[in-house]
Amino acid sequence: MATPNLHSILQHHVSLTVSCIDRIYLNGYVPKLQTAGQLCWFLRDHLGYPIPSPALFRPLHDRFVHGVQDFAAKHQIPLVHFERGQRKDDLAAGYRARFTDPEGVVFIGVAQERALSFKAQEAHGALGRFFTFSRQPVSVNHYYCYVQDPAWGPAFVKVGTYLPYPVRVCLNGHEWVKQQLRREGIAFESLDNGFLSCAQPERLQALCDALSPDEVQGFFDRWVQRLPWPLTAADRAAGFGHRLAIWQLEVSLTQVFDEPVQGRHFFEALIRENLDLGRPDRVSLLFPTKLIRTTPPPPYGYRTRVITQGVNPSLHVEHKHSHVKQYFKEERALRTETTINDPGDFYTRKDVVHLPYLRAAGEQVNRKLLEVERISGSCLLTQDALDRLQRPTLEAGGRAPGLRFGDPRVMALFQGLCSFAHLPGGFRNRDLRPQIAGLLGLDATTYTAGKMTYDLRRLRLKGLLHRIPGTTRYTVTTYGLHAALFSTKVYLRILRPGWAALTPDPDAIPRPLRDALLQVDAEIQNLCEAANLHTAA
Q: What's the whole-model pTM score?
């Protein structure tokens, strides 16, 4: 029976496919309280104190702290102090399991954490004594308000107790979709925070696509009104309100397998395809047992396997501050997840209104990575396509020499393109250059930016790259992806190990290849004997 490949598994053994925003981490900040001048304006002109002094910080802090304590006591909400090193999510899961109301505050956690606050320094001038302020890191208490929201389900809002009152918000897009399905009465089965099945898959995907910045802003506005807040309604009306920015965004593509064994087959094929193609930065196998220095070895020693029962495989591809992760979710589904840690990696700003753009970028990365894996699993090049690589090309943009197969610099370029094929926004000279230099064993002073520019130009003229108009960024074409994967696989898996067979030392030949050559030699001898052909004396 033929070994399953990536393309056939994804085409024939997936029962449900869902693309959805997963976790959203938001940063809340007060635009009018970010500089020393703005702080002085807030204290003097808004609050009416004649001298902006650090002595005013404590009353503001105490007012907020007492407000939280009174709120917790009034509504009988547990007020919990987190211990150092304690996993907050594990503690929250226990409180949520005992919370039975459809909405409300589950509990409030208190943790001392680092934050950027204002510190004062006394100074003297012609008008007498005054204070100067600067932003510096300090350790202050933060309140974690774990809530059950009618639209978002489980979420939390974290608020700092000192000016300028930093805020963090954690939401989950899958949980938002679950709440909408419950409202519409559509049956579904959960897979952790995702979906294992749904009675109406089309409606499920439509709801995933409907998640908008307005829903995010609505959640924040709703809980600012309900929770004790460091800035009063009068402060917010005067323009001292929080604005949301995207701190981290996870965009996931979940493909549920009809049988769990298909997930094992997928990752076995995936890891075989990716171990030497230069695409993943990390392939990890997460074992359930923690190995430390004193852990005794197994009775028969350690053995190497690709995947075994109880091992969680994952593949990681990183780019700038963001990365893509593929893993086997609860032994049932393939989860491809793009985590955007800096919207600037995708050439946009952090404001929450850019959520649709970032979601589209993450979805494109997920799809592109799967496309690369599908092509890698069964890639072919026609004779014309191979000839196009080898022959010089004369285009309107200039003349490009042939890309000679086996040339170290050409092979490094092909291998490097495999690493950047999944990026929807393309890559630049400075992104690709360090990888090519590393593959060639050179440093940045030897493989210069000018050499990288030359190589990009000839790849573009040969049709392997497309330059995005008006930018200096490039994307890999479909032809370029086929050519890069095919050439890299032939070079790394056939020619380079096969060249050892030409050496006089038989020990230099890999054992599987040596055994195969001996078998071929034996078969040739049998054919010669059957034809009554004998070696000349």
A: 0.73
